[in-house]
Amino acid sequence: MIVLHPTVAVLAGAVILALIVGGVALLVAGWRARTEAGAAVAGRDALEGLLSAAPMQPVVVRPDGAVEMAPRVADWLGLSATPTYLQELDAAGWGIESAEAQGLVHDLTACQRSARGFVRTVHARGGGRTLTAQGERRGDAVIIWFYDSTATEGEMRRLRGEFNGLSDAFEALTGLVEAAPLPMWYRDPDLRLAMVNSAYVTAVEGGDAADVVGRGVELVEGSGQGGPAAGAAAAQGAGRPQSRVLPATIGGARRSLMIHDVPLPIGGVAGYAIDIEELEQSHARERRFADAQRAMLDRLSAGVAQFARDRSLVFCNQPFRRMFAMRREWLADRPEFDRVMERMREANRVPEVRDFPGWKAERRGWFVQAEGAIEENWHLPGGTHLRVVAQQLPDGGLMLIFEDRTEQVQLASARDTLLRVRTATFDNLFEALGVFSADGRLQLWNNRFRALWDVEEEFLSAHPRVDAIAEKVAPKLANPRRARQIAELVRVATAERQQRAGHISLSDGRHFEFAAVPLPDGNALFTMLDITDSRAMEQALRDRNDALEAADRVKTQFVANMSYELRTPLTSISGFAEMLHGGYAGEMSTDAIGYLDAILDSVERLGLLIDDVLDLTSTGTGARPLEKGDIDVGAVARAAADAVRGSAKRHHVELAVEIQRSAGRLTGDARRIREVVEHLLRHALSASRARGRVLLHVDGNAKAARIVVSDDGAGMSPEAVARAFDRFAQEGVAAAGERALGLGLPLAKQFVEAHGGTIQLVSEPGQGSLVTVELPRR
């Protein structure tokens, strides 16, 4: 047994311990290195797997021409083996189209020389694969990353097609906006004008779109909250379209525009304006028409009620309210159709029916009636008859018209009675009557008509034409050819609507008066009246009148002859009396002179009466016509006053003459007008009291001359005034003791009327008389 020294043992233990520690350290280091190596291998494998699965695969081209290519790239390019040198790739043409290969080689060379990267799309020759090559230089090597963009290219082609389509649509939309006839614009997110179309430029009278956008010319007026951008701000804030009506001046005219602002997803706001001026005017006209229509309906006698689509009462006129006893306050709540019908039933203004709800439901169906108007007749309690018309309105509403036909029904009943009475009267008239229609056919006739022409009832019942009737009755006429006159009169009455009459004689000696009268309904009434007896009486009266006219002519001639015969001794009496009054037979006593004055007055009055009688007889027979000429009215009146001045002086009557310059001149017979004035003055002198006053006043105007003669005598009674101008009813004045009127006033009236003038007498008892004559200038 070996015994070690303690020191040696310690050293050996220390060495062994160091060896153990060293071994353990080596084991730990080895384990750590192994772990790190495994992690590195795993990381490399993960990187290789990630690289192999990456969509982009590298090809490294080194300066010496060595090539490192990922297997997937070789597969994409359709290469049979993975090349290791650039010459092999060039020889294989890179597996792509030749033109694309040349371009890729050119890009690779440029990248090697100038480190300029490149991107190129190439197509593999074999499988039709599309690859995107992106090259860059890293250090001395060039890395070309290949990416299989076959699917992406298809998507890009699709997107490119969509882009082209959208571009075309955008261009079309832009052209449409530009060509739109209404102003359109676009505001950016700050609500400033960014784009406008040509219609906008034209509306604001701008130069072009750029000028309008640059100056920010707004289409509509206003500022602040009601400004042109207020609607755009509201649309942008609410996120939905806004519309409003604003005024604008376009082309110098005031217009109303409907402005629409539409928010866009990009933050801006598009807008367009529609000119609604004509629409507004149309709405105004429609409102005015509706108001006028309702005002007109209020004036109708028929009741009218209009219901809306929801069956509420929207309008009723005054006759409707009166007819159904409805208060305006109740109607103001727009009651529903059923409530209106119930209120009508309460007023006892609907027909009495057993099932009122069912009856009401049937009337409610009028709202959905297919087409056309519905008409009913309602017989109400109390004998009232209503005609009801229901007309569906275009807007789904309903209009009801209630016409009170009670009076018409009563009138129809009365008409039937009158027709029966007329028929009975028609058949029993003495006249022969026939009614012909517009085509000349006989429609009605009475028994007298048939008996007069002695025709068969069967012939008349066939309603023959008037030509056939005229031909049948021609042999019964005294002159058969006059039968055509009957047909002509009926034609004139029916076609020309003119009345004609005539006489006709029958062969048996009877005479008839016939007439054709147009009737309101287009027919004509033909009447024949037997005037045989009246014809005989007329002939007898004509013969008697001829005898009376002959006797009157003899009387007139006798009066004229006697008047001339009486004038001869009257002239001698007047002459001798004037000689005695002048003192040719010696000095006369006062009493004798008074007697001579009386003789002269009587002679003068008798001469005047003879002249009046001659005037009446000669003027009435036309023996002395008017001799018209231009005369001075004032001069003629003054001459007449001078002629009677002596008589006025003898009777102690004041004669006042007032002749105005307006009397003027006129066309007439100067002698007759003078006689008119003399007759009026002599009448006034004869009616005046002693110391009385007679006034002659003459004036005129542009159309006529006026002569006024007045006196302050006893006046005349109304009966005397009524007979004053009647030459055959001269019974004197009303006051006792006055002189007779004589023929002066009738002669004056006769001469005045011969000149186309008028004469008027006004008188009252105790107030005198006033005679006014007006003579036209022409």
Unreliable stretches, pLDDT < 50, 5 or more residues?
731-741
- The tally of strands reads 27
The proportion of residues in beta strands is 15-25%
Q: Give me the number of helical elements.
A: 24
Terminal CA distance reads: 200 Å
The pLDDT mean sits at 81
Supply the number of structural domains: 5
Look at the structure and give the CATH class of the largest domain: Alpha Beta
Gross geometry: elongated
Radius of gyration: 67 Å
Tell me about the largest β-sheet.
5 strands, antiparallel
Instruction: Identify the CATH architecture of the largest domain.
Output: 2-Layer Sandwich
User: Helical amount among residues, as a percent range?
Assistant: 40-55%
Q: Tell me the strand order in the biggest sheet.
A: 2-1-5-4-3
Secondary-structure-based class equals: alpha+beta
Q: What's the CATH topology label of the largest domain?
A: Heat Shock Protein 90
Q: What is the CATH homologous superfamily assignment of the largest domain?
A: Histidine kinase-like ATPase, C-terminal domain
Which short descriptors sum up this protein?
five-stranded antiparallel β-sheet; two-component regulatory system; kinase; EC 2.7.13.3; Beta-Lactamase; elongated; 24 helices; single chain; alpha+beta; 27 strands; 778 residues
Summarize the structure.
The chain has five domains: 51-148, PAS domain (Beta-Lactamase, 2-Layer Sandwich); 180-275, 2-Layer Sandwich (Beta-Lactamase), CATH 3.30.450.20; 282-410, Beta-Lactamase (2-Layer Sandwich); 429-530, Beta-Lactamase, CATH 3.30.450; 626-776, Histidine kinase-like ATPase, C-terminal domain (Heat Shock Protein 90, 2-Layer Sandwich), CATH 3.30.565.10. Helices cover 48% and strands 22% of the residues. It has 24 helices and 27 strands.
